Structure formats: C-alpha cells, structure tokens
C-alpha cells in the first residue's frame, strides 16, 4: 500500500562537499516531489553520487543538509522503512546466495525474514535465490540490489545509475519495476548521465553540473515547452526579411526548410518582431527540445 507523510520526500538545502581543493557539490538545493519519478541528471563528475551518498548518510557534508521526510538520514528511527537505496555495490559475498544476503540484512535491520521471499518474487529472482552471488549476471545483481532496497517496504527509492551495464531487456525490466513502484504512490529518485535510456520514465528532472543546480522542474518545463522559451519556428510572408530583422535585434536565428528558426526566445517575442516589421506570420510554433538536447544545452553552457 502507498504510504504518505506530509513532509517533502527529499529536500536538499545548501548541500556542499569539498574534497581538498575539489568542490564535488557546491551549495546545492532542490526538492523532490512525492509520488513522482524524478531524474537526477548530470554529466560525469557532476556530483550526483556524492549528493546521493550525503542524502543517505554515507558521506558527511562540508555544509548544508539533506533530509528525507524532514529528517537527516542518521536521525531516521527506522530508515529501511523510509528509504531504500540502490547504489553501486550491494556488498554481497561472492560465495553466499542472494537469499542468504537478504536474510542477513533482515536480521540486522530487524525486518521479518518473511520479507525475503516477498522481495525476491517482486524482482523476479526467486529461481536464482539460492545460487552464489558470484555467479550472478549484471542484471541479476541489479535485481538483488533492488530487492535489498525494497526489504523495509520504503516510501522513497533512490537509485544511482540503475541502468549501468544492463542490456536492453534488463533496462526495460528496471524501468517497468520503477513504474510499478511509483504507481503505488511512492517516490523515486534516479541518477544517471545516460538520459535516453530512462527519459520515457521521468516526470520531473533535476539537472546539475559541476556540483551546482542548472535546472529543476517537470520534463516539459525543462525541455522549454512550458517556460515560454526554447526553439521557435516561424513561417512568414517574408522569411528573409524576418531573418534579417531578427539578426538586427541580436536574436540567434537561421533559415530552415523555408521557415525561420529562432534558437531561443518565445512565440510572443517572435510575433512582436514580425508585427513591428509588418511581416505576416502564417504559422509559428514552439519546438520542444528532447530532454537529452535540453540536458546537453544546459550542461554545455554551464560548463564553459
Ligand atoms: N572520495 C573522493 N575523494 C576525492 N574526490 C572525490 C571523491 N568522490 C568524488 N570526488 C570528486 O567529486 C566530483 C563529483 O564526483 P561524483 O562521483 O559525485 O560525480 P557523478 O556525477 O556521480 O559522476 P559519474 O556520473 O561519473 O558517476 C568528481 O570530481 C570526483 O572526482
């Protein structure tokens, strides 16, 4: 059953981590909305893993804090029932079975051992449960990792690069499992730098670069379709005149298939320019960037 509380599932406030002269995360603030699947996106080295590890109490922040349902991780009385995490390494022993690993975790977290069979079934790992972890494929390891995260029946699931190294069917499986989890009203935060693989799943996105926030919102907002800015295509009575007028105003525009393509701006701005120049617009439309294009734009600009 879905579980909800009144507080924000994940709130990051002024979070900073310095490693000597390297600032891995720099005064980062964002919130994750309940019951949504949020992508935590950033290029290699942007600070995603460090942020998630601080959120999960595995790395101590230099400044700021991250809270899960209003509490820092270490203050959670019963953390496994609040948040489950799928990180790089499940910490299972090669010569122990997946079932043995989960049983040990149950004992340590005072979770009833009966949960082991439940989560093994949830991640389709029952048949391989008694095989040694060392014989598991990458996909099976990822399923065990998810099973581990689900042991405490948490409200929030945090996953660091969950599709890393998986084949297409493994990726499909993970995406379906996460969709199901979110459909129960739970909150999912997924970090990745491979946007194309998980784009279809995401509702909200947080994009970071060099440890700082560069965008946050729904996928549509970040792709430019709701913010009023982004690429605009205009079919005009005098396309060459419109292009010249745009450039004279310092707007970035090109000719594309008979239309004038404005690389940034908004429909209102383009309409006003055409009216000023007495050029009739036959059609004007806002082109939604793909999330991947928006990501590349945002992180490229910020990276300079
Ligand atoms: N323990 C550490 N000691 C020193 N520097 C570190 C440490 N952990 C991370 N860093 C540095 O902090 C920065 C952010 O790393 P982080 O792993 O958080 O990025 P990321 O966004 O998860 O990258 P990736 O997508 O490659 O996993 C990098 O410059 C990294 O080299």
TrEMBL record:
GO molecular function terms listed in the Swiss-Prot or TrEMBL record: ATP binding; ATP hydrolysis activity
SUPFAM superfamilies associated with the record: P-loop containing nucleoside triphosphate hydrolases
Boundaries of every ABC transporter domain copy: 10-235
Membrane-crossing residue ranges in chain numbering: none
Keyword list, A-Z: ATP-binding, Nucleotide-binding, Transport
InterPro entries per record: AAA+_ATPase, ABC_transporter-like_ATP-bd, P-loop_NTPase
Organism domain of life: Bacteria
Family: Belongs to the ABC transporter superfamily.
PANTHER family associated with the record: ABC TRANSPORTER, ATP-BINDING PROTEIN
Protein name from the UniProt record: ATP-binding cassette domain-containing protein
Organism from which the protein derives: Natronoglycomyces albus
